[in-house]
Amino acid sequence: MKNNRVLVVDDDQSQCDLLEASLGRLGCQVTSTTSPQDALDRLSHEAFEVVITDLGMTEMDGLELCARILGTTPDVPIIVVTGHASMDSAIAAMRAGAYDFLTKPVDGKVLGLSVARAMQHYRLNSEVKRLREVVVATRPEGALVGESSVMRRVTELIGRVGPSDASVLIQGETGTGKELVARAVHAASAQKDGPFVAINCAAVPANLLESELFGHARGAFTDAKLQRQGLFVQASGGTLFLDEIGEMPLEMQAKVLRALQERTVRPVGANVELPFAARIITATHRDLESDIEKRRFREDLYYRINVVKIDVPPLRERSSDVLKLATHFLSRFAARSGKTALAISPQAAERMLAYHWPGNVRELENAIERAVALAQFDHVTVEDLPEKIRAYRADRFLLAADDAQEIVTLDEIDRRYIMRVLTLLGGNKARAAEMLGLDRRTLYRRLEKYEGKVPSDGPSPDSQDRGEFQ
Q1: What backbone torsions phi and psi does residue 264 show, to the nearest 5 degrees?
Q2: How many CB atoms lie within 10 A of CB 343?
Q3: Is the Cβ–Cβ distance between 380 and 348 less than 8 Å?
Q4: What average pLDDT does the structure give for the chain?
Q5: What are the residue ranges of CATH 3.40.50.300 in the chain?
């Protein structure tokens, strides 16, 4: 709280002096006044992060002062202090817009905690406002959003590989925005004015995938009444994006490999080879190297498509981007629904920052679309968010506990930390063992000890257990 500005209002000078001394020991820059009107004048031309006011004052009571402050500087949290505490006065203060309610004599620790929370509230509110003012509305809908270090690395790699014609493999969990990365690579390429043709290999039945990719001749099969050009040829002069290539059947993988090697395709039922000149970008949420070991994916095709690999981080590894993305989606959906000037309340922002987002950016986008549809005010509230985000509580524990009840056993710390690492790595035990400095067999034994069974690779382990060190 060092150098944070606090305004104290109490018509009793001795109370002002007490609060000023207590807050000064916490490192705050304190301004005090015995006049509520003087406080309003100061707020009109000076910046304060927290206001502390007495409830019972002769010139103007604390409730009226709260209402007037909210009318001019609504972002500044107000802590109301009174020597005559009652449930009615506390409720009245909260209804007047107070952030917190304390009773005299004010305990120094309680005061410090209240002011610290109020300052956090103020800063979060300020950040939300700043993000609103960023011109996200001018950003193209398909543009990548994020300023975290991991996303800066992704953006830098896109800028470097884009101008080349190298094949790109994009790897990341479902919902991380792999197609947006593919479109960004295309936009950075010399073929940016050419077509961007995308297909989800998992969404097309295996017996139709060959026809979709290579085309077919008239009469090649029952419903082939007309000749059809395949996506490889359609994408000539641009980019062909093969999403979820890890779901492609092995037989089809062999045909795609030949097409990539020869740069020609043979339509189903045709006797001629057709050339194509498209850049190939692929994407998958699977661990293709593991699939190669299990003979689910061809090794030769893997090396053909994996000239440059771009790993798209999950949202839990770029939490600093959550509010930026939320603000971006908020602007888009608010404009579509005809709602203007929507903001995210600090309380809603806190819940979004605490949540782990297993569905990644897609889940966040869905949550904001829902919130915009339900919003009744000029801002998104906690009640507008999905229930699982509202109810989410991270299981946190302290290494330096101040209370004996907070202390946990070393086994419990070990268990929580292992489960947290597994969660962050998407349940990948091989990577978890490497990061923890354990061999895989030792990790399995510990998981059996703590959970009674070994979670399978892929899905995250027990999502209810997400311990974090502080």
Answers
A1: -140, 160
A2: 20
A3: yes
A4: 84
A5: 154-311
pLDDT at 400 over 80: no
Query: Cβ distance 392 to 355 under 8 Å?
Result: yes
Rounded Cα distance between 322 and 38, Å, is 40
pTM above 0.70, yes or no: no
- Superfamily of domain 154-311 in CATH is P-loop containing nucleotide triphosphate hydrolases (3.40.50.300)
What pLDDT was estimated at residue 71? 80
- Report the range of poorest mean pLDDT among 42-46, 130-134, 172-176, 384-388: 130-134
- H helical segments located in 104-230: 108-133, 149-161, 178-187, 206-214
Q: Which two tokens stand for residue 337?
A: 């629904």
CB 114 within 8 A of CB 80: no
Out of 3.40.50.2300, 1.20.810.10, 3.40.980.10, 3.30.420.60, the CATH code matching 5-130 is: 3.40.50.2300
Question: Using an 8 Å Cβ cutoff, are 111 and 25 in contact?
Answer: no
- What pLDDT score does 455 carry? 43
Residues in CB range of 151: below 8 A, 6 or more apart: 144, 313, 318, 321
Across 146-160, 245-259, 398-412, the highest mean pLDDT is recorded for 245-259
274-327 pLDDT, tens digit per residue, is 999 999 999 999 999 999 999 999 999 999 999 999 999 999 888 889 988 998
pLDDT surpasses 60 at 459: no
Q: Report residue 451 as tokens.
A: 């959970």
Question: Which tokens in the block code for residue 327?
Answer: 């603000």
C-beta of residue 381 within 8 angstroms of C-beta of residue 348: yes
Architecture of the domain delimited by 316-390 = Orthogonal Bundle (1.10)
Domain with CATH 1.10.8.60 in the chain: 316-390
Rounded-to-integer distance, Cα 181 and Cα 170, Å:
8
Q: What is the pLDDT of residue 121?
A: 85
Instruction: Provide long-range contacts, Cβ within 8 A and 24+ apart, for 256-262.
Output: 256/213, 256/301, 257/298, 257/300, 257/301, 257/304, 259/213, 259/214, 259/232, 260/167, 260/301, 260/304, 260/305, 261/304
Domain with CATH 3.40.50.2300 in the chain: 5-130
Strands 274-275 and 264-265: antiparallel
Backbone angles phi, psi at 31, to 5 degrees: -120, 130
Q: With CA atoms as reference, report the closest residue to 214 among 263, 176, 171, 159.
A: 263
Tell me the CATH architecture of domain 396-469. Answer: Orthogonal Bundle (1.10)
